[in-house]
Amino acid sequence: MEQPAPIDRDDFVMNDDTILDIRIGMLLKIGMLTSAAVILLGGVLFLLHHGHSTPNYTVFHGVPDNLNSLAGIAAGVRHGNDLAIIQLGMLLLIATPVARVVFSIFAFLSERDYLYVTISTIVLAVLLYSLIWH
Amino acid sequence: MNAIEFSLLIGMASLVAGFLGSLTGLGGGVVIVPLLALAFKVDIHYAIGASLVSVIATSSGSAAAYVRKGYSNIRIGMLLEIATTMGAILGAFLAAGTPTKAIAIVFGMVLLFSAAASMRKRNPPPADEPKDRLASMLRLDGSYPDDGVKHPYHVRRVPLGFGLMFGACTLSGLLGIGSGAVKVLAMDEAMLIPFKVSTTTSNFMIGVTAAASAGIYLSRGYIDPAIAMPVTLGVLAGSMLGTQFLMRAKTKAIRIIFAVVIALLGLEMIYSGLTGRL
Fold this sequence. Notes:
Chain A has one domain. Chain A contains five helices and no strands. Chain A has helices at residues 9-14, 18-50, 70-78, 82-110, 114-132. The longest helix of chain A is centred in the N-terminal third of the chain and has 33 residues, at 18-50. The model of chain A is unreliable at 1-15 (pLDDT under 50). By secondary structure, chain B is mainly α. Chain B has eleven helices and two strands, in the order ααααααββααααα. In chain B, strand 1 and strand 2 form a beta hairpin.
């Protein structure tokens, strides 16, 4: 594990979160670009293999079970299922803001800002309830 | 229409929506759902699922740029995210039990409101208001850069803003949109946050908020990969283009055109909901 760079003393005094801002910006950008690339890859494969099928979405059936859960999508990706690869990209996209919240908890911890460590942890708990409990 | 044509058409339409959405600050989601439902005859639940993931993509993309410029207030964002994520989960649960007609009518009303709100003149808040005790305790006050000068600001009426954000994000979870117009109301009017800060902080929060409803949407089967793929890529590309264009363009004319389009879509959604055509 690499040690995080020491934060300049002035940042505590100014309290303008500059370093935190830059790191969060990087994290969001990398997450967004990675998920877009995975979605594009899955999309191209899907259209190569099933481009001439006729889409019909007028009635809601819900996507099949293997595309609406973490385990189902993981299994699909291992078998090279095109739609599962797109869903993996969607999962990465959803995970990006969650990763940002996790990152914020550690960032506030390193600033000894326990009020905001608590606030960030509450947000993470709500997110995990939505993502995992279901 | 085969899958290639379907993807290309939706992708192109999403690109235009993302482009206009980023220029006007209303986001692409408000146009995507009516477009998919009315023009492509996609069931509204698939439409809101696809729109929601595209909202996450654009939020992460543009928040990355704004956060680095120092406009967003991360503390205000984190605090309000408690309200927005809880609202988003409530909205996602409501979406499952709400009939399509009712979703269409509520959607139409939010579109009309967004169109009206986008035309409203936003006045900068008074600079020398006294500090608010709760806001100081939560260390929400901050400053933002403009023309190389730091402008300090004080945040007010935190509980009211918190409550309004909860409501805005219940709508967001129900309709699969960012509800930027309602959030800006909560942050500008209730909390008196300067609009550069409120717009960018709202954008910063939308990703986390949408992620909270997305978990429930995914497990309920609303996020169909074949629809969400062209929508997400199209909106993302469009909004990235929009951010580039924003630096040079006069946006007043575009803003008016977009507001009219949104208002018309709103009326169409209400009409379709009332006559049961969706």
